[in-house]
Design a protein that fits this description.
The chain has 12 helices and 14 strands. With about 375 residues, the chain is an alpha/beta fold. It has 2 domains: about 220 residues, Rossmann fold; about 130 residues, Rossmann fold. The strands form 3 sheets. The chain has a 7-stranded mixed sheet with strand order 7-6-8-9-10-13-14, sandwiched between helices. Helix 2 crosses helix 11. The protein starts with a helix and ends with a strand. The structure holds phenylalanine. The site of phenylalanine has 14 residues, from helix 11. It holds the Pfam family Peripla_BP_6. This is ABC transporter substrate-binding protein. InterPro entries: BCAA_transport, Leu-bd, Leu_Ile_Val-bd, Peripla_BP_I.
Length: about 375
């Protein structure tokens, strides 16, 4: 009897641990929750949490609740890589919702690939991100398209003939997008009057802007992240530059207007969705998001939500929870009705979707036009 009791005492906690683990599906996420791109991580995590809360309320995936492990990469490539390692080796996640910033996805996706853990980036647009391997996916369009969108808008809608470029040389996303813009703008008969650079963390852009002013461009393409773009807008106006600034999705943050103030108003950027859409999928999402967080979701929140829903659907369809099974189902994603559009993952594991052009107007984001691939 004593023996039996003793063995029960030893075995019960094991059984309990086992049941607890069997009842949940652990999914990892990492992103910048602090640092100069903090709104990227904060927003996409809000979208991801909203999606998993809804899924859990409806019974979970395969009858199991999703347990989301979130890690802060502080906006640093090395931290992104170590977050992915920890999620895989310590938390034993079945899949990872990857980073927003392309540089951080490029630094961490190879680790997921080598462990055969599916990795889905909500918002990294640099083409190299999914080239890492067959376990790496994204639910957004890529920069060869995004750069074309702004080149087309500049030449056709704004009738820009001479453009200047100001790129963040330490940012893979910024460099890639700038290169595509230059190429596409020239193809359309435009002239690049100067192509200058800065580095994230810089606060004084007057030297570059003075040079740009001397070339008198019709527009300035600044494909950076919101913190520097806000400062660049301020300093451009202080120097008397009136030409519009043009940019990409890296502008999309409420902080852009807080930093850029009135100087950022009237400028244009390409993005993944518009809050002005009347599509019920969008209006419904905005309503639920506002009810939960009391704020309007930016594109990252919408992409995070779509990434989580697409991953959950793939896990639900997969015959088991192995990386291979989940990966194979992710690759079959077709016509998924997302908030950011209809999502089909192509043979490169990228989504092909339209982009919108947005004009900044204080905290408002005015929808200007949609450009389809
Ligand atoms: N596309 C950006 C990158 O690859 C990230 C981003 C997406 C930022 C959407 C804001 C909004 O680095």
């Amino acid at each position: 009897m004593k023996r039996l009791l003793l063995s029960l005492v030893l075995v019960l906690p094991l059984l309990a641990g086992c049941t607890k683990k069997d009842n949940v599906i652990t999914i990892g996420e990492y992103d910048s929750m602090s640092g100069s791109d903090a709104t990227f991580g904060l927003s996409s995590n809000k979208g991801v949490r909203l999606a998993f809360d809804e899924i859990n309320a409806a019974g979970g995936i395969k009858g199991k609740k999703v347990d989301l492990k979130m890690m802060d990469d502080q906006g640093k490539n090395e931290e992104a890589a170590s977050a992915v390692t920890r999620l895989i080796t310590s938390n034993k996640v079945v899949a990872i919702i990857g980073g927003v910033a392309s540089g951080r996805s490029k630094a961490s996706a190879p680790i997921a690939q080598s462990h055969k853990v599916p990795f889905v980036s909500p918002a990294s647009t640099n083409p190299d991100v999914t080239k890492v391997g067959d376990y790496v996916f994204r639910v957004c369009f890529i920069d060869p398209f995004q750069g074309l969108v702004m080149a087309k808008f500049a030449s056709e809608n704004l009738k820009v003939k001479k453009a200047a470029v100001l790129r963040d040389v330490k940012n893979d996303y910024s460099v890639g997008l700038a290169d595509v813009f230059v190429q596409e703008f020239k193809k359309r008969g435009g002239e690049i009057v100067t192509d200058l650079s800065y580095q994230a963390g810089d606060i004084d852009f007057k030297a570059q802007l003075t040079q740009i002013r001397s070339k008198n461009p019709d527009a300035i393409y600044v494909p950076g992240y919101y913190t520097e773009v806000g400062l660049i807008a301020q300093q451009a106006r202080q120097l008397g530059i009136k030409a519009p600034l043009l940019g990409g999705d890296g502008w999309d943050s409420d902080k852009l207007s807080e930093i850029g103030k009135e100087a950022i108003n009237g400028n244009y950027y390409s993005n993944h969705y518009t809050t002005e859409s009347t599509d019920p999928a969008v209006t419904e999402f905005i309503k639920k998001f506002k009810a939960k967080y009391n704020e309007t979701p930016d594109a990252l929140a919408a992409l995070g939500y779509d990434a989580a829903k697409i991953l959950a659907a793939a896990i639900e369809r997969a015959p088991d929870l192995s990386g291979q099974a989940i990966r194979d189902e992710l690759a079959k994603t077709k016509d998924f009705a997302g908030v950011t559009g209809k999502i089909t993952l192509n043979e490169n594991r990228d989504a092909v979707k339209s982009a919108v052009v947005i004009q900044v107007d204080g905290k408002n984001r005015k929808f200007i036009t949609t450009i389809t691939p």
